[in-house]
Design brief:
The structure is a single chain. Helix content is 43%, strand content 15%. By secondary structure, it is of the alpha/beta class. The protein has two domains: 6-151 and 321-373, Periplasmic binding protein-like II (D-Maltodextrin-Binding Protein, domain 2), CATH 3.40.190; 154-318 and 389-428, D-Maltodextrin-Binding Protein, domain 2, CATH 3.40.190. The strands form four sheets. Strands 1, 4, 7, 12 and 13 form a five-stranded mixed β-sheet that branches. Helix 3 links the parallel strand 2 and strand 3 (69-75). Residues 1-24 form the signal peptide. This is ABC transporter substrate-binding protein. InterPro entries: Bact_solute-bd_prot1, SBP.
Length: 430
């Protein structure tokens, strides 16, 4: 695989367009008979139903099909899992057997550190079955994790509030988005919710402006080479500054968390206090979990991020990413079998039915029933270029300094040049 953290849409479109292929694997794979008791620890980022319940069911099913195997499955809040729990566990030598692995720079760092099992041969059939969607989790031609979800970022919105504000069509340009912000303020609704307290939700805004500002060839070369000399990186911050000046975000956004509780940016959407949120494809499920009945609301809609007037990037580019699972290098063989079962067509179909994201198995696209996820998958397939989340693309060392510099722009205490300086300083320390 190219060491770039980017991937052509041709490598991702397979997520939703390939026809039904190979038969699904069964729980336990080839190691159904165990000579002794085996315990597998499995960490994921689902802390509420329906996804938390699905993963618990999958663990129980695997145990039933594999006598002597116990699966200890635990869901953790995403930020805790990614920022501290997994890194600390890997460094301590007491890591889980199966755990979340993010694409791009994160899988590269974990693989180069020797933490991940090479799945290329031991899970060859599963990898082949998933198609080209697996490529962002490869390094030097080897597969170190397998994605169960991949989708496009976009703006999730309350259709009822749009109707109340007299917004007749979803914005297609940034100027039209600014008009929608004005209309929503007129009905005393926070136009856009952002969980800047968790840093990365605010970071996504700068990432998107960078994708809009930087030509494709710059994105393809600058990110793997850590070269941020092109003026488009500063322009991204300038565009963000100009947009923030329109006062589009919820009150107290600097302290607002992203996805935890009624006062999070997700919660503000769920309870009708805010009209829009820019977020990844998992948002349907996380918003639904925070509504009164725990269901995805009928008024929830989705549209691609609007084009930025006068920006120098490819108008057909889109930002997206996914979630995958890897296996620790010292995990028992049964952990690989568990991963195969998680990625089986049956489990992927049930994942699609939860509405928690866009599955990667090419045979289950018809199982998506959420029209917003269908639209997200379609936008991904129609894009001319797909950019992974920039913090993930760069690698774990970049996340906090990059996102903090971006949040400083939101707070009015940082500049577009500061963001580039944070990137350059982090790169220099690599």
């Amino acid at each position: 695989m190219n060491r770039s953290r980017t991937t052509r849409v041709a490598a991702i479109a397979a997520v939703s367009t390939l026809a039904l292929g190979l038969a699904a694997c069964t729980p336990g794979g080839d190691n159904g008979d165990n000579d002794g008791d085996v315990t597998i620890t499995w960490w994921h980022n689902a802390t509420s139903d329906p996804l938390q319940g699905l993963w618990e069911d999958v663990a129980a099913e695997f145990e039933e099909a594999n006598p002597g195997v116990t699966v200890e499955v635990t869901g953790y809040q995403n930020e805790d899992l990614q920022r501290t729990l997994i890194p600390n566990a890997l460094q301590s030598g007491d890591a889980p057997d199966v755990f979340m692995v993010w694409p791009g720079g994160e899988v590269r760092a974990q693989a180069e550190a020797g933490h991940l099992k090479d799945l290329t041969e031991v899970a060859a059939d599963t990898i082949e079955e998933m198609g080209a969607a697996v490529s962002p989790w490869q390094l030097d031609g080897k597969q170190y994790a397998i994605p169960y979800a991949f989708g496009a970022a976009g703006i999730w919105y309350n259709t009822e509030l749009f109707d109340k504000a007299g917004i007749e069509a979803t914005p297609e340009t940034l100027s039209e988005l600014a008009d929608a912000v004005t209309a929503l303020k007129a009905i005393d609704v926070a136009p856009i919710a952002v969980g800047a307290g968790d840093l990365w939700p605010a970071g996504h805004w700068w990432y998107q402006f960078a994708v809009s500002s930087c030509p494709t060839d710059v994105l393809e070369t600058a990110i793997p080479e850590f070269d941020f000399s092109d003026p488009c990186w500063v322009e991204a911050g300038e565009q963000l500054e100009e947009f923030i000046a329109t006062d589009p975000f919820n009150e107290g956004f600097l302290a607002t968390p992203g996805q935890t509780g009624a006062d999070s940016s997700n919660g503000l959407i769920a309870n009708g206090q805010a009209a829009m949120e820019f977020m990844g494809p998992w948002n349907s499920g996380t918003i639904g979990a925070l509504t009164e009945d725990g269901e995805v609301p009928e008024w929830l809609g989705w549209f691609p991020f609007p084009t930025v007037d006068g920006a120098g990037g490819d108008a057909g580019s889109i930002m997206g990413g996914g979630d995958g699972f890897g296996v620790h290098v010292d995990a028992p063989d049964e952990a690989v079998d568990l991963l195969k079962y998680i990625m089986s067509e049956d489990v992927q179909r049930r994942f699609a039915e939860t509405g928690a994201g866009v599955p990667t198995h090419p045979g289950v696209a018809d199982a998506l029933t959420d029209p917003n996820l269908i639209a997200s998958a379609a936008a991904l397939g129609e894009a001319s270029y797909v950019q992974l989340w920039i913090d993930s693309a760069l690698g774990p060392a970049f996340g906090n300094p990059l996102n903090q510099a971006i949040v400083n722009i939101f707070a009015g205490s940082g500049t577009p040049q500061d963001v580039v300086a944070a990137l350059e300083q982090t790169a220099a320390a690599q």
